[in-house]
Amino acid sequence: MHSAVCEKRQEARTAELQAEVNRLQEQLGRSVDAEKVVKQHIKLLHEYNEAKDAAQVLIGRLASLREMTVREVHESFGLLDIE
C-alpha cells in the first residue's frame, strides 16, 4: 500500500517537473541550444568584467591626477557603492 502511494507521488512529481521543463523550453524556444546561450552569457560577462576593470584603472588614474581618493571620484560621477 505504502509503496503504491509513494510511486503515485513520484509519478505526479515527475509529471510536474516534465511540465515545467516543457514550459521553460517553450519560453526559451525549441530551436535554441541552452548550452550556446550559457556560453554566450559567460562570454558577455567576461567582456563586461574586462570593461569594468579598465574603467576602474582609469578612475584610479584620475583620482591620482586630481589628488582624490577613488571613492571621491566615484561619488563625483555618481558611482556610489562601486568598488
Automatic annotation (TrEMBL):
A single GO cellular-component term on record: Swi5-Sfr1 complex
Signal peptide coordinates: none
Gene Ontology biological-process annotations: meiotic DNA recombinase assembly involved in reciprocal meiotic recombination; meiotic joint molecule formation
Record key words, sorted: DNA damage, DNA repair
Domain of life: Eukaryota
InterPro entries: DNA-repair_Swi5
Keyword DNA damage: yes
Family: Belongs to the SWI5/SAE3 family.
Protein name per the record: Uncharacterized protein
Organism: Pleurotus eryngii
